[in-house]
Structures are given as C-alpha cells and as structure tokens.
Amino acid sequence: MSQEGVEKRYPAVAWAERKNLIHLTVFVTDCKKPEIKLETDKLFFKGKNGEGTTYEITLEFLKEINVDTSKYFVKDREITFVLMKSEPGPYWNRLLKENKKFHWLKIDFDKWKDEDDSDIDMNDESDFEEMMKQMSGLKSTSNDLNDLEDESDEEKE
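The structure assignment produced for this chain is given below.
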C-alpha cells in the first residue's frame, strides 16, 4: 500500500551465500530508522533515504532462516544482513521463493563463494564472531533482529 501520490520504490538488493548463511545488502543511503521485520520465511524492509524517498520491499525466502541468530547492520550507504540458515547444507538454487528475475535483485560477487570453494568454517563460533566484528566496522549500527529497538541514539552518547 502506498501513500497518496507516492509511488512505492524497491531498493537495490544484493545477496551472496555460504553453506549456513546468506549475506544480504539493501542499498539505501542515509537510512536512519529502517523498519525491519524478520520471520523464518521472509524479510520486510521499509526506510527513507537522506533525500526523503521511501523504499519498501518484502523478500519471501526460498527456505527458512534462523531469526534468533541473524543480525543486521545499518551503515551510511546500506543495510547489511547476515541471515543464518535454519538448516546448513547445500546451496539454495535461488534466494526467493518466486522463480523469476527481479530488476532490483543482484548477486553480490564480492561476497559470493561457490559451494566447493574453501572458506572460513562458519560452524566455528569464533570465526563467525570475527566475521561479525569485521562487518560492523566503520560507523555502523549493529542490531540483533530479536530486539529491533533503535539503539543509534544510545551509541552516540
């Protein structure tokens, strides 16, 4: 549903996969207070960029993810998600349930690894924590998807 006279816009989205997680990036610059709802089978995002343009999208995943262990990071130019799969194992043949191409959805080749490529063992808790620390680097807000309270004001103090 869109507001009167306002066209609904889809943000650009990029994704990459590992055996037990999905890297997902929603490209919206200067998005201060995004509305994010994560369920086992879908992700809802709504937010305004620095110019006031509203972006909204619902992604219905091909398979289930683990809401409890998934996280996101709000950065200056994007919102980055680390979505833990409910069942690690073979790669999905696509991200979304619907089997069609979307102009706003791209593969993130910088983060992509093929199934047979060697990679950090993401089942090792210490490697996963190290990756999370690296991803949250410069001026970002890290959020546990179970607690979607806006923590950005607290971090500025």
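Interim note for the steering committee: Residues 71 and 144 are 5 Å apart (CA to CA). Residues 121-126, 148-157 have pLDDT under 50 and may be disordered.
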